[in-house]
TrEMBL record, chains A, B:
Species of provenance: Niallia oryzisoli
Residues covered by the Peptidase M20 dimerisation domain: 195-353
PANTHER family per record: BETA-ALA-HIS DIPEPTIDASE, SUCCINYL-DIAMINOPIMELATE DESUCCINYLASE
The enzyme's E.C. designation: 3.4.13.-
Domain of life: Bacteria
Protein name: Dipeptidase
Record InterPro entries: Bact_exopeptidase_dim_dom, Cyt/Met_Dipeptidase, Peptidase_M20, Peptidase_M20_dimer
EC top class, as a word: hydrolase
């Protein structure tokens, strides 16, 4: 262990430079103008895997962005670990709120700032470095290893489930290891045992056949913005509950035991409010405590809305179109496709008089829940303890990694979510960063896990 | 008259080419990147006035865009007519809805399509051509004439009232003549006797100190879009009335006589709905008929709203900012500044828990009402009758020309609003146009008015 640690110290500058190289690539999967950048990131990963000694490395084209596969299978009888991660990133707007440009990685206060620093390039890179370090130190790995790194996680992994189904043999493994989640807090590791699912919808509301002048028509004809407000105001009730029929039908409430555990862990509400610049935390359902709302309750969020004039100055226009982007976070046992249909139905049925409402359905992803007492989970806990000196918290995560549930079901293998991010690292927001204290420690924890499951 | 008519026929192609030149200039007053274009339009007007023989032509700089003045005062004892118009135009977005580019004037179906074709470059240009034609025909004008053409009408004429106050002597006149309004319908002229006023507000709603990831915070923290919807849903009641305290306090209801006149004129609701692509006309106050709502009732319109992600694909963001642009159309005797304060107060008092609401106040303009039996109004009616063969309708206009009330009050002169636009010419919207049948007829009507008031 100390030998690995020394090796990492020696290679630290080189390793960080390599990470920066990867972070510079603008691999935004949701924007078609970045298609080539996404390919560039795929090539980068593929070359890196070859360089560290992985075999059978290939860039596998899909209908969307490519998947990278590579393996090193030399330990007959030893367990096989499949590492999953993603090299695509979220868009960067509003770009003017970044203190340093999103694709110019910059180190400040022992954090590295860049889009993808923590989600997920930074965390995925730890696995590449763990393998490289073990090989450099011992000449071989204690286990068999496979990499499966995709470029469509941020758009809901539309092509990965098919790829998994078609390549069950190739990807067969004893455990799927993923680092795309957070620790509990600075110095306190966590293993995520639950993830929320997701579904997305986009709405276009239309009135007249063109924008109209409010001097000629104001007070007479429908304003798309007004009708949009009317429609959207039906989506939540006064208590913050989602006001869509049957939305909560399949939600599994937390058990009393889980609620107690959550209470024991404590929660510094004042600190959180201060860090977010908020005087209160009144989003979502009033009847549930904050930590439960963000982890084990479903939501419906308006991620974007727009209609009419957004330019400088005044324009006395009656807009004839308005738009909304919605995503729902879902929990066990909600079905993403079913929820999409319920929300669509609600929007269509509540469309105000005088407009048409078109609803298009977007990405979906299943929620995930895993038992915390499985052998692989326990081994992961041991690895964390060795490096961080503390047992990890078992955490319900509010985010979605839709593919986790697919890995679990299609490959019939346990999934271990070993996160090295920290809360507040601004993923999906301006000034995303990763705390560098978890760089070498993250690599060591992964090395330790690989060594421990060998036994 | 027939001599003028022949002269106009002879010069038609040249005149249209000149108008096209003016329409090509992108003089959007509200966008700072078009500042030079606005100056260019000012120079164009100034040169044109000199070319047709106007004297003392000057481009007068203001704190914003310049005013052009010119006069021809050779008829001692004859009335003096002050012509007002504006050479600035509205923005052009959404630009992809224009069938031909907004600044490439194109003639189709005897209409000229371009931003400013009817509002107001096209109509203002008729006065230049009327003076030129009379001078070419008779060698002199029947009256004294002054031009005052500004470049800030579309942003609420912030500098014109001051200019009028400071130049009362220079601008003194017996009548102010303005063409920036519509006829009743094809072939039926109209004189506008009332205009609505205007006030604008812009709202920024803020929650956390940055955008947040809905996976980490969804269900826990306030979403600026949700709070915006909540806030905006308080602005109108279920009957479409503006739900702001004291909003209607100073509104003068139509008299029974005016209501009868409005009913007599008739209104083809089906035709209007068809032309707008609407199945019903349910904007504004349910308790008032359509034509009353768009002309003599005040409104509050959300001209623009936006918050969060508008790009391609999905972004699971909880936006921390949302924005709204509002304008109110006002009627006699509402005070624009007072209404701004009432709306601001409403927005601040109804700000949902968990956000800050900043309201900034924009343009204002007074409503206008003039007696229809004044001598100048009657002369204008006669001029229309000579050219169009029909007496004009006296019309309450839903639009705003804030400066009209100022001309009336500051220069203490009657204002005659002699419009040559037609309803449906898409001013402030894509595919703005002007019906060319009113080009020569408009010029002739103006010539006729100048000849008739001489007597």
């Amino acid at each position: 262990m100390s030998q690995l640690s020394e090796l990492l110290s020696t290679n630290y500058d080189k390793n960080i430079e390599e990470l920066k190289e990867l972070l510079r690539i603008q691999s935004i999967s949701s924007l078609s103008e970045h298609k080539e950048d996404v390919q560039k990131a795929a090539s980068w990963i593929s070359n890196k895997l070859k360089t560290i000694g992985m075999e059978h490395v290939e860039i596998i084209q899909t209908k969307g962005h490519p998947i990278i596969y590579g393996d090193l299978i030399h330990k007959e009888g030893a367990p096989t670990v499949l590492v999953y991660g993603h090299y695509d990133v979220q868009p960067v707007d509003p770009v003017d709120l970044w203190e340093t440009p999103p694709f110019e990685p910059t180190i400040r206060d022992e954090k590295i700032f860049a889009r993808g620093a923590t989600d997920d390039k930074g965390q995925m890179f730890l696995h590449i470095k763990a393998v490289e370090t073990l090989l450099e130190s011992d000449g071989s790995l204690p286990v068999n290893i496979k990499f499966c790194i995709e470029g469509e996680e941020e758009i809901g992994s539309p092509n990965l489930p098919h790829f998994l189904s078609e390549n069950k043999e190739k990807l067969s493994c004893d455990v799927v290891l993923i680092s795309d989640t957070d620790m509990w807090e600075k110095g306190v590791p966590a293993i995520t045992c639950s993830l929320r699912g997701l579904c997305a919808l986009e709405i276009t509301l239309k009135t007249a056949n063109s924008d109209l002048h409010s001097g000629m028509f104001g007070g007479g004809v429908q304003n798309a913005n007004h009708l949009l407000v009317q429609l959207l105001s039906t989506l939540h009730d006064a208590n913050g509950k989602v006001n869509v029929d049957h939305f909560y039908d399949n939600v599994i409430e937390l058990t009393d035991y889980e609620k107690e555990q959550m209470a024991e862990l404590g929660f510094d509400e004042e600190k959180l409010k201060q860090s977010l610049g908020l005087t209160n935390l009144t989003g979502g359902e009033k009847d549930y405590p904050y930590r439960e709302r963000i982890s084990s309750r479903p939501t419906l969020e308006i991620n974007g809305l727009w209609g009419g004039f957004q330019g400088e100055g005044t324009k006395t226009v009656i807009p004839n179109e308005a738009h909304v982007k919605i995503t729902c976070r879902l929990v066990n046992n909600q079905h993403p496709e079913k929820i999409q249909q319920l929300v669509k139905k609600h929007l269509e049925e509540n469309a105000p008089i005088g407009c048409t409402v078109e609803v298009s359905l977007g990405d979906t992803g299943n929620p995930f829940l895993t038992p915390i007492d499985s052998p692989m989970m326990q081994t992961a806990a041991e690895a964390y303890k060795k490096v961080y000196g503390k047992s990890p918290v078992y955490k319900r995560e509010g985010g979605s990694i839709p593919i986790v549930s697919d890995f679990n079901k299609i490959l019939n293998a346990p999934v271990v979510l070993m996160g090295f991010g920290l809360p507040g690292e601004n993923l999906h927001a301006p000034n995303e960063h990763f705390h560098l204290e978890n760089f070498d420690k993250g690599i060591l924890t992964i090395c330790s896990f690989l060594e421990l499951i060998e036994k």
